[in-house]
Amino acid sequence: MYKPLADEIRPASLDDVVGQRHILGRNGMLRRIVESGQIPNMIFYGPSGTGKTTVARIIAERTNRTLRKLNATTAGIADVKRIIDELDTFLTPGGVLLYLDEIQYFNKKQQQSLLEFIEDGRITLIASTTENPYFYVFNAILSRSTVFEFKPITPADAEKAVLRAVEIMNSRRETPLALEAGVTARIASGCGGDVRKAINAVELLFTAAWDRDTISLDDAETISQRSAMRYDREGDDHFDILSALMKSLRGSDPDAALHYLARLLEAGDLIGACRRILCSASEDVGLAWPQAVPIVKACVDSALQLGLPEAKLPLAEAVILLATAPKSNTGVMAIDKAWADVKAGKTGSIPRELQNVHADGAGFEREQGYKYPHDYPGHWVRQQYLPDELRGVKYYDYGDNKTEQAAKAYWERIKK
Q: How confident is the model at residue 282 (pLDDT cuts 50, 70, 90)?
C-alpha cells in the first residue's frame, strides 16, 4: 500500500522535529512539559505542515495513555461517544490521549461533550487548529487548555528536511539522481513554511525523473511556483494579508504595500485588494489630500474593468500614491466621536431653524428663523446647528497638514 514520503519520514523524537525551536528547543516550554511526563490539555495553533500532528504523536508515545485520533472535518458526536465508551475498560487502562485535528470544525455541542472527561482527567486533549483558537475554540475548552503556537518553518530549516527526503529517495534507486545547484534551496523556499509540501515536492520530482539522471532547477521551480502561497479567503491568512496591506499604506511604506498587494493578486483576490485601497484613501490620507479619493477610485475602476493580470498596473499606482501621500485621520476621529455620542443616546431635538419647514401642515406654520449663509459676507453667519443637548461639542479638530491648516486659517479669518 502506498504511503506518502512525508508520513514515512515523520520524526520520532522532538530533536528530529524541524523548526519550532521557540517551544521545542532545549529550554522550550513545550519540550519541558513533554519531558516531565505530566501532559496537560493543549491546543496547537499554526499553519499546516509545521509539526502539530508529529509532536502530538511523540507526546502520545511518551505517556501510558491510549492514543485516539479524530479529525473534526469528518468526525461527529458518535465518534466522541465511542471513545467515551472505552474509558475505564481494558482498552484504555491509563486513560485516553485524544488528538483532535482541526478542532475549529467541531460545533459548541461537540466540543462540550468532552468537558466532563477533560475535567476529571480521563481524557487528555491535544487539539490542533489552523485558525485562531481564541475565535474558533469555545471558552470552556480554552480555559482548560494551554495554547502553543506553531510557526511557519524557515527555508533554512525546511532545507534540512528536503535533504533528508532526497537521501531516502535516492537510497531506493539503483543509480542516485543528481540535483542541479539550487534545487533543494528552491524547494525549501517555495514550500511556504510547510514541510509536508517540501517533502511532497521531492517525491514528485523523483517520480517525474524516472527516466532521467538529474533533477533540474527548472523542474523544481515549476513544482514550487505557487507553493509558497498560504491563502484562504475565509481564514486568518486572508485577513492578515489585507490587514498588512492597510497598515503598510498607513505607515507610508510603498515597498511593503506593493508586496502585500502582490500576494493578494497572486491569490486572485482582486476585490479584497480594491476594498482596502479605497478605504485607505479616506481613512489614512483623508483630508490631508482629498484628491486621493477620486484618483484612487479611478484606479480601482480601471482595475475592475481590466481584470487580472493587467489590474496590477492601476492598483500599483494607487498603492504607491497612497503610501507616499500625506496622512490625516481627522475625518475618522471626527465621525467616530459623533457616532459614539449617537450610540450613547446623545441626540436631542433638531433646532427649529434647521427643520424642514415644508413639513408644517396647513394652519400650523411657524417662523423658522433660519439664516441663509449665502446672504451674508463670506457666505457664513453665526447660528446654532447642533441640538441644545450637544451645544458647544467639538468632534473635528484640524490636522497639522498643509491642506487642513489652510482651511483652518480661512475659516478663522471669516469667523473672527
A: very high
Quick check: helix, strand or coil at residue 354?
Answer: helix
How far, in Å, are 72, 164, 248 from residue 293 at the CA level?
46, 53, 18
Spatial CB neighbours of 415, under 8 Å, sequence gap ≥ 6: 380, 382
CA–CA–CA angle 334, 285, 243 (5° rounding): 95
Instruction: Determine contact, residues 88/122, Cβ cutoff 8 Å.
Output: yes
Q: State the Cα–Cα distance between residues 324 and 69, nearest whole angstrom.
A: 52
| Angle subtended by helix axes 183-190 and 217-224, to nearest 10 | 0
> Helix (H) and strand (E) counts for the chain?
20, 7
- Amino acid letter, 56: A
Instruction: Judge contact between 253 and 323, C-beta under 8 A.
Output: yes
126 SS3 class: strand
pLDDT at 229: 53
Query: Grid cell 535516492 — which residue?
Result: 170
Categorize the per-residue pLDDT at 356 as very low, low, confident or very high, splitting at 50, 70 and 90. Answer: confident
Q: In whole angstroms, how far apart are CA 207 and each of 163, 212, 227?
A: 16, 10, 18
Helix %, strand %, coil % of the chain (to 5)? 55, 10, 40
Strand partners, 125: 98
Position of cell 521531492? 202
Of residues 26, 16, 52, 19, the one with CA closest to residue 126: 52
User: pLDDT of 302-342, one tens digit each?
Assistant: 999 998 889 999 999 999 999 999 999 999 999 999 999 99
**Residue pair 32/38 in contact by the 8 Å Cβ criterion:** no
**215 DSSP β-pair partners:** 179
Count, residues in the chain: 416
> Does the pLDDT of residue 231 top 80, yes or no?
no
Q: What does the pLDDT read at residue 338?
A: 93
Determine the Cα–Cα distance for residues 397 and 392; give it in Å rounded to an integer.
13
Q: Encode 399-414: b = buried (16+ Cβ within 10 Å), e = exposed.
A: bebebbeeeeeeeeee
Give the separation between CA 21 and CA 28, rounded to whole angstroms: 7
